[in-house]
């Protein structure tokens, strides 16, 4: 191993490559149980034996691995490498695996992954048996993606190419996946045309492929979905993670929108005869649709499945008089329906001995923590209060979840 020059350790890619040497691997092994609270002492100790820049890079990588464990699981995260932007923008492994399974099921065998970042999606695709060309314009991201494919034993299925995605010829592939960067120097980017590359370019690239998917922000408005695309909103464990625009073989004859809930997967689409849901008084049961269902504008489908109605035409809460379990929404039994009144709620909670209060809101400006401070819950029992509107009027619904 040659001694590093100043140029070696001033270039992020060179520093990263040093992490892959025996010296770098030994450093990362020492940091496997890294405690951020001891960073100064650990860094001081390690710098006695290793170059300061390499120690800093190893500590940064240990910190990123800890952050990445939530998305990739502790087993993979401990073997993988990351950049700060790569961790922030990476697809959760469960979501990537689901999407890779869809690609494989639709016949994808060779796929161009444009804007691959740290390679999380390429890894999921390779594990699904798809051969991947992973493209990114960042030399560091490409070095990381290549190292990840090797670390996970997938190098034979993943080729990493450092290039501008807009200049890559994907005509020889039977599928394309694009994940334009949605964060810049000032944080999250909300205008799709400010993505890098712009969403309009990604749409045209998708249209040229037999099968394609574009990852977009879950807040994309329905009117921005191209008419030849099928839009899918995906949640994992109840948290909405992303939206995907499917083209080609995935969109022909498919419902215009769908919501997919992980784990499962369970998918709800717009292909049913639900129609517009009616509204009516609060019944004994309240359903809180999953966020992906709400984003996909499929609340009417949930209402139809549970024989329910909306409590307000502008609020995504469904109510019914009989309990019908559904995987597409959490169910609650409602014990009290009250006009919004903090003093009355405080008295009711004291009477019921409620010390654990879960506050949910939809259509209310009141902040949950503010309400908790005012009612000062105390006692052995638990309850959930919904701050919302019923037929336009500010209302409080008190109840408990049905397990």
Features of the shown structure:
13 helices; nine-stranded mixed beta sheet; 403 residues; alpha/beta
Main sheet characteristics: 9 strands, mixed
Q: Which structural class should the secondary elements be placed in?
A: alpha/beta
Helix content: 25-40%
- Average predicted local confidence, pLDDT: 92
Order the strands across the largest sheet as they lie in space: 3-2-1-4-7-9-8-10-11
Number of distinct helices: 13
Strand residues, percent: 25-35%
Tally of strands: 18
Task: Point out poorly predicted stretches.
Answer: 1-7
**N- to C-terminal separation?**
59 Å
Q: What's the Cα radius of gyration?
A: 25 Å
How does the overall form come out from the CA principal axes? globular
Secondary-structure blueprint of this entry?
Blueprint: H1 12-19, H2 22-30, H3 39-46, H4 52-77, H5 84-89, H6 93-105, E1 110-114, H7 120-127, E2 131-136, H8 139-151, E3 158-162, E4 175-178, E5 183-184, E6 187-188, H9 199-207, E7 211-216, E8 230-236, E9 239-248, E10 257-262, E11 266-269, E12 285-289, H10 291-295, H11 299-306, E13 309-310, E14 318-320, E15 329-339, H12 342-352, E16 354-361, H13 368-375, E17 381-390, E18 393-401
Parallel strand pairs: 1-2, 1-4, 2-3, 4-7, 8-10, 16-17
Antiparallel strand pairs: 5-6, 7-9, 8-9, 10-11, 12-14, 12-15, 13-14, 15-18, 17-18
Helix pairs in contact: 1-4, 1-8, 6-7
